[in-house]
Amino acid sequence: MSEKLWGGRFQKSAEEWVDEFGASIGFDRELVLEDIEGSTAHVQMLGKCGILTNDETDAILGGLARLKEKAQADELEFSVELEDIHLNLEKMLTDDIGPVGGKLHTGRSRNDQVATDMHLYLKARTKEIIGLTEDFQKAILEQAEAHVETLAPGYTHLQRAQPVSFAHHLMAYFWMLERDKGRFSDSLKRIDLSPLGAGALAGTTFPIDRHLSAGLLGFSGVYENSMDAVSDRDFIVEFLSASSLLMAHLSRFAEEIILWSSQEFGFIELDDAFSTGSSIMPQKKNPDMAELIRGKTGRVYGNLTGLLTTLKGLPLAYNKDMQEDKEGMFDTVKTVTGSLRIFAGMIRTMTVNKDVMEAEVGKDFSNATELADYLAARGMPFREAHEVTGKLVFTCIQKGCVLKDLPLSVMQEESTLIEDDIYGVLAPEAAVRRRNSYGGTGFDQVRIQIAKAGEALGRTVR
Ligand code: ARG
C-alpha cells in the first residue's frame, strides 16, 4: 500500500528513482510561503462560506501559522516521496493538527493551488524587479547629470560617426529601461488574477466564494474560466519575455562597458569592487561582472524558449509537463535581480575618463557632417556638399591630419563658400551643442531629456 496522500487506488509504491524523477520539491520549495498564504486564504474562505466549522477553520489556520513560522526560520524538512511543496505542507499540517488537516483541500486541487502560488510569487517578484530597474535608472541618471557637457565619440557600425554628449549616450539606456519597466507593469495586470477555486479543471460542487479568496490574497480579479485558470502559463511567458528584452538591453550596455574599459578605448575605469584580476597576468583588471551579465542573457532567452516549447501542443487542462514551468522562472528571477543590482553598482562607481574621450573626439573626422551642413546651409545642394567634404577628408588622410588642420586656402580650392568661421563650426563641442533638435544630443536638449527622465522617476533633477 502506498503512503502517498493520493495512494488510495494504488496497490504498490513507485520505486524511489521514479519518485525522484517526478518530484518537484527540489525546486518548488521556493514557493513555500506563497503556498501557505494561498492555503490560509482558502481556509478563511471555506470558513466564511460555512463549508468548514469555526473550530475546523481555527485549527487549520493555527497549524498554517505554525508552518509559516517554521518556514521563515528555515526549519521545515521536505521529503521527495511527498513529491511537491503542496503535498509536503499538507502532510506536515496533518501531522501537527490531526485528520482535520485533511479538510484543507476541500474544494481545491493542486492544479489551482500551484497556479495560485505562482501568481503570488511572480506578482511580488515583478514588483521587486521594477524597483531594481528604477534604482539602475537612477544610477544612470546620476552619471548623466555629471556628464552633460562631456564629449564622446558617437558610433554607427562601430565607426566614429558624430560626436555626442556622453550623457546622451548613457541616457539612451535610461529610456530602454523605462520601456522595460512598462512591459513588466503591464504584465502585472494579467498576473493579478486569482486561479484559486478553479479546482482540478471544472470548478467544485462546494459553495465556495472565489472573489472572497482572491480579495484576501490581494488579487484584483479572478479567472473567468476554470479550465483556462489551471492550464495557461501565459503570465510566466510574458514575464520571461519582458525579462529577455531587459537582458538584451543589459547585454548591449555590458558590451559597451567592456569595450570602454579596454585599453583600446580607455573611456571608463570600473571600480575594483566590480572587476577581477587574472591568476597568471598580474597587470589585468577584467570587467567580469559586465561579461557575466552579457553571458547570462543567454539563459534567460533559453528559459523563454523552453517554456514556450513546453506549452506548445498541450491539450487542456493541466498536464504534468507544466511542472517544467518553474525552474526557468526561478532562474530568471535570480538572474534578472542579480544583474540589475550589479549593473547599478557598476555604473555608480565607475570613473569616466572625460579627458580621454574628448581628446579622441578631436582626433577624428566625426565633424565631417558639420562641414557638409555648413556648405548646405550656404546654399550648396547637400549631395554636392557631401562630395566636397569627402574630397577634403581624403586630402587630410593623405596629409595625415584632420579637417581643422587644413589651411583655409586648401578648403577654398574645393569651395569658395568656405570662410574663416569654419574653424569654430568644426570644433567638436560646437558640433554637439548645435544638434539642438528635439531629442538630439545638443546640451540644452540633453538637459531637457534629463529633466523628463527625473519626472518619469518622480524626482526633480537640475
Ligand atoms: N508539482 C505540480 C506542478 O508543479 C503540482 C500540480 C500537480 N497536479 C497534478 N494533478 N499532478 O505542476
From TrEMBL:
GO cellular component labels: cytosol
Organism, scientific name: Edaphobacillus lindanitolerans
Lineage: Bacteria, Bacillati, Bacillota, Bacilli, Bacillales
Gene3D superfamilies linked to this entry: Fumarase/aspartase (C-terminal domain), Fumarase/aspartase (Central domain), Fumarase/aspartase (N-terminal domain)
GO biological process: L-arginine biosynthetic process via ornithine
Protein name stated in the entry: Argininosuccinate lyase
Family: Belongs to the lyase 1 family. Argininosuccinate lyase subfamily.
Keyword terms of this UniProt record: Amino-acid biosynthesis, Arginine biosynthesis, Cytoplasm, Lyase
Residue ranges occupied by any Fumarate lyase N-terminal domain in the UniProt entry: 8-302
Enzyme Commission number: 4.3.2.1
Gene field: argH
Pfam families tied to this protein: ASL_C2, Lyase_1
Keyword Lyase assigned: yes
Keyword Lyase: yes
Domain spans labelled Argininosuccinate lyase C-terminal: 365-432
GO molecular function, one term: argininosuccinate lyase activity
